[in-house]
Batch of 2 targets.
Target 1
Amino acid sequence: MQLSMEGINSILRQYPSEQRYCLAIMQDMQRQYNYIPREGMEALSEYLDCPLSSLYSMATFYKALSLKPKGKHIIKLCDGTACHIRGASPLKDGIRRILGINEDETTEDGLFSLELVNCLGSCALAPVLVVDETYYGKMTLEKLPGILSQYREEQS
Amino acid sequence: MTITINGKSCECEKGEFLLRIAERNGIEIPTLCHHDAVEGQGCCRLCIVETVTRGRSQIVVSCVYPVEKECEVFTDSEKVRRERGIILRLLEKRAPDSPEIRALCEKYDAPRIDRFVKADSGKCVMCGLCVKACAELSVGAISTVNRGVAKEIATPYHEPSSVCVGCGSCASICPTHAIEVKETKDTRIIWGKSFRLVRCRRCGAVIGTEQEIAMAAERAGQEADGLCSNCRQMRIADVFAGTYGN
């Protein structure tokens, strides 16, 4: 989603100008752009007549909100107990070898971001990898390149 | 109603905070995050005391504990000393560079504890007084950023704030003097932003920064008179003297 002031303003206008909506608005921006752009933070501060500092405090507090641009596809690698034991760490290394990113980082082409999560509640499928909304259970290092290139091809 | 603190009976209203009652009666309770201008922090936990209500003892945080029933309070019991000692040592590990906390550890004889990991450096105990002071007295230029061990006090995006007026309320309210203010003859630098200082047109004492004075004048709805509080008092006294004679 291309960043534009019209886009940001149309998110803002869906809510009344009251401070209690600030988290909902930030979540909407996060969903729209995969991160909260600085322009969005500043516009929100003005719209709600609320100091930028308190919005910044919230945005840095919640893990679900990001102030840095995230990739088009979010890879969530489960590192809960079951997945950890069944080899989440080698998978993390595998992703680093293929994409060159560690956790909380984004590839240079802006295609992938990697997040490490604590449990997805799918322990029977351990180790689990989720790309956007798709679950990949009983993951192995061998399956990894195929899955990732699928998203890459979809792009081109 | 009446409660007893360390054996002394003290008059109080129902719902009054325990710390306030103790202060009024000259009973000392150590605090860090408490300040009359911004109440209800209750986060440093240093002001804990023991209350005994109908034989039941409990440790409470006196700055945010409203007295509801008659009770006995002990500010320096064995239990208080032990728990306060641990709190002090934890604060000391968090802010190892703070002479204030080191002095409190000595004053209240905090026990040596080796199992806590010490932070590399710092004076801040993350009480958030500065954030509240800025939001309530000034403009809300700073806030807590991040969470857990990475939590810190900072301006948005760690850049010089566009709204900060350089009043220095954050620094002067800080119990451990953790906020750096650099002041030369006519500038003040705080949170990475430089401000020009204004001096009293009569005696030359520093009144504040240009932005701070402009903000105060706007809020008061009148023009700044360019005087420090002493000279303003003197001028008003002169007016009175002129009006009523000697």
Note: Chain A touches chain B at residues 38, 41, 51-57, 60-61 (CB under 8 Å).
Target 2
Amino acid sequence: MNAQAFTFGRAVRLSILIFGAVIFLAPYIFMISTAGKAQSDIFSSSLSLVPQHWSYVANFTKALTRVSMTTLLWNGVVVCVLIFVFQVIIAIPCAYAMAKLKFRAARLMMVLVMLGLLVPIHATALPLYVAFDRMSVLNSYFALVAPFTISVFGIFLFLQFFRAMPDDLIHAARLDGMSETGIIARVIVPNAWPAITAFAIFSVVAHWNDLYWPLIVVSNQAYATPPLGLLYFRAAEAGDDYGALMAATLIITTPLVAAFLLAQKRFVEGITMTGLKG
Amino acid sequence: MTALSLRGIEKSFSGNAILKGVSLDAGPGEFIALVGPSGCGKSTLLRILAGLESADAGEIMLGDRDLSSVPAADRNIAMVFQSYALYPHLTAAQNIAVPLVMRRLTGAQRLPLVGPLMPGQRKAITEIKRDVREMAVSLKIDHLLDRKPGQMSGGQRQRVALGRAMVRRPAVFLMDEPLSNLDANLRVHARGEIVELHRRAGVPTLYVTHDQAEALSMADRVAVMIGGSLLQLASPQVIYDDPAHVEVARFIGQPRINLFQSVVGADGRITLGDVSLGLSRETVSAGAPVTIGIRPEFVRVHRSGQQGLPARIERLEFLGSEIIAYCRLDAIGEPVVAKLSPAEGAGLAAAMPVRLDFDADRLFVFAEDGHRLRPELMGAAAPLETAHG
């Protein structure tokens, strides 16, 4: 940055942005700070960001030993990957058909997708729970994954993206001898990476952080996802040991933060291309 | 002998008739240009032929094979799109290879990871690579094979698109305005190349364009489509010199043909200035409205004398090898365009009063429904002439 570009207007703009960033980051920063504080530090009357006694090692040891952190993280990864893979497998062909094929039910499909976007998971949670209970599939990966395999949001996002793809490209593929499945695999997917990346972030963030649904269908610690594990940890082990709790939270949020930082460019690209606002 | 035959193709979109029974035959190795204003249905016809749209009625015959219900992938028809429609994620070589890969490899051989284990896959791929290279060399794009479409210029992309269409030796070759995205110089150059490629491939080619210069200069025969109907299919000379319909005359020719509304006189003759034409009474009755057409190059401009109709020059365009004079007739206020050689046009100026006269045997007469009427020239005996087409 050279001095010439640093005008008054730019300084004002940057200050506003920095102020906003600080507000948004404050809880996270405070969490990092608390994760390193001893019990006495946390409950002291003065508010300081830098711990007086560095207790990171103690707190992280507690977080890693008192609860089986590897199981939690592993469950989180399995559930998120399964959900994402199924969502993409279902949403891409569906969105392709709605965007590029002509069929009589196309309008009805569009209405159904819109309707699906309007119905929150909380409305369907009870019937789903009863059904899973009858099927005796509570406390399983199936119960955690199945309700999210069809993502109307995913269909909608891919639909917007595919509509922008030129029809001639699909026509050329047909003339070159591809079946509709072939077109999806060889033309659509290779050109849809920005949209897939964007959707991956939406999907993984939502399901990694989801507490509501795991809380309903999982009561066995072996299938607990990270946020649910955190809840158990707080209830059963930590009590008011906020230092250990914050250390556990830090461990659980780190993978997402790292993933976002790595994919940030593609993520923004994908959102701009779909014309959706985050 | 016909290689490709379209019979009574009809198509309408939500009640709008786009194609109203189009029939067309192409001989083996014939280059046919489909020309018409935008929205006349020429691209739709091409898409129906390719199998990308289905016709409401009519049949498509390739040799003695009925293609009407054959899916696009199995028709062995190749098409070059206006946008080229290259796969953006593949290199030029991979783009050209796609139709071969889809045809020569089995589904299992195409699978990632598993494919290379299938018997015969390696040999087929070697052959495909060889054919792609041969194609690229013949199109002079072998130095571009590793580039993706985004790294190529318009002309280069167009060649890759041609290569992709030709590499599998299709039975019919379709082109949908392949030159319209190129700049003017390149376009004229590419015309010659496409004609040359067509001659080498020797398969019937349908070439859609809205540019009459392209159609007239490239095609063996030109099909003029207006409003969903094929009005005339003939050699470029016949299309220009002997149009069968007023719309054909109006569409082909630059500057546009001069058209005048007139009526048949009581004696069965029509007159335009000093020219009087007899029309057979069998075809038109006295008082019937007709349209008279004369191409600008057959309008003569006189600066003096009593011959011809009085008019005034409104505007002159100097185009180097020719001069276009925009005039207006004093009597009826109709505009008339004349195309003159620089010698003929010397000394003319805007607002100058002139006299215009017309080459009698170059006048076209069209009936009210647009079809051509064949006039008897002044004083000629009266052979029965009927509307053409």
Note: Chain B touches chain A at residues 47, 50-52, 71-75, 77-79, 81-83, 85-89, 98-99, 102-103, 164 (CB under 8 Å).
